[in-house]
Amino acid sequence: MNSFQLNLKTFIERSARYFPENEIISREPDDSLFRYNYAQYYERVQKLANVLKFLGIKKGDKIASFAWNNHRHLELYFGIPCYGAILHTVNIRYGEKEIAYAINHAEDEVVFLDKDLVPKMEAIAHKLLKVKAYVILDNTIPETSLSPVFSYESLLSSADHTYSFEELDENSPASICYTSATTGLPKGIVYSHRSIYLHASALCFTDVMGISEHDHILPIVPMFHVCAWGIPYAAIATGAKLILPGTRPKAEDLLRLIESEKVTFSAGAVTLGIDMLTILEEKKYNISSLRQLMLGGQAVPKALIDKYSQKHGVPIVQGFGATETSPIVTFFHIRRDQERLSDDQKNEIRSRQGMLLPGLEMKIIDELGKEVPWDDEHMGEILVRGPWIASEYFKDKRSSTSFIDGWWKSGDIATINEQGSIRIVDRDKDVIKSGGEWISSVQLENELMAHPDVLEACVVAVSHEKWLERPIACILLKNKEKGTTNVEEALVEWLTPKFPKWWLPDQFMFIEEIPKNANGKYNKNLLREIVSQSILSSPS
After folding, report:
1. Number of domains composing the chain
2. How many helices (H) and strands (E) would you count in the chain?
3. Which stretches of 441-483 are assigned E, i.e. beta strand?
4. 448 and 397 within one domain
5. What is the mean pLDDT of residues 399-411?
6. Which residues are annotated as catalytic?
7. Are residues 42 and 183 in the same domain?
8. What is the CATH number of the domain that holds 64?
9. Are 230 and 327 within 8 A, CB to CB?
10. 87: buried, middle or exposed (CB in 10 Å: 19+, 13-18, 0-12)?
11. Does one domain contain both 57 and 112?
């Protein structure tokens, strides 16, 4: 066989050659839509490579993006790694400390940023050690203290429109992404051309996302978070129509795009899925074009799956993964022998995180290191290895506790059934250890969110003198004006037939908002602090 290097350049070269007229659409800050095609996109990517040369960027240099999901950010996705440099997608939702840490730790030399994010960058610019230039992703440069600063469009307009991308070693780094920094400083993961190529190819499998040239793809998941789950790479590899939601998209902005652009596949956080469903209950949007809506970041409640399926005919799908895994490890799949099941039974399967993708290895081990049986009862931690699974953190001593003998220890607790489909029970740090037994906060949350009065629910552990830990349920009601009178009794009544009595929360706290981390997941660390302080300050 030929020794052929797996390079990202082959994706854009293919889409530009075979699907030059297929569209890329980007929502602008003023809500208008910018449209161009793959041929024009490829030309701008080549111009970007010449801009990098002008800026003095060398192979192996790191370049930061600080941007929303838009067409210019998409140009960085390919222009930077195909040039031979390394793209660092900085999480714009980090606090100032984490942003400065990530840019310094990665040793970024240039920052490409959206105009509306300039104030956030100005606040930390004096802390950045290696950054030698800033490029505003716009036609104009706002008044700013950043220096030296360039306009992206001005640089592109004066650049040559052709560039010959050379073949790179497939194991050379293409991008860096940092974890969500829920506890401690964020940890960096380096993705190679090979790992991104293989992961994107796997997403196109029919039994995974099934992305093809026929699709209209809307990646809601931020492009600064695990390369938007690899979806932009798969979309461009296949020549799919790609719709980018732009600056600060709200749930209604997304619904408008789904309707107007006839989106067939979209992916984003569970919390946004909840927000969109809330709007759909009040306003009419046609989302029937969706063949799948993928929700992630946390386990998807079956009640949410049922509502999308029953009211809108949209199948919800999910999987399992993390920054360390590029991220997709498992994916929901209806097997051939399950096709004749009822819709409710199929939705039950959709509430699981699914089967392992081809090319990867996974095991679930108990506290003694033994693999758990495939009985969907025994719980254990998920360990994974494979060609798009990280082997270490970038310049970080914490690698030794997360990567053991080639396996990545996920910290996620799961069961696996006889067909090899996993169900995430909890994070190891979030499972409630009460009286020597484990209580799944995820299962309690899913059932609470199935109650008609509950919009969101988050269950956390609090210390208990006798049982070590006990569950407390934090509830966000759909109708806050209705009040909480009798609601707690109703929720206890709702949960009682579904769980052992000792699983039931000791207390229900009704709150105005459930805190979320930089990636839209429930921030249980912060919520535990809030709950503990509330309990301490309550009169005994």
Report:
1. 3
2. 17, 27
3. 454-464, 468-477
4. no
5. 96
6. 179, 324, 433, 438
7. yes
8. 3.40.50.12780
9. yes
10. buried
11. yes
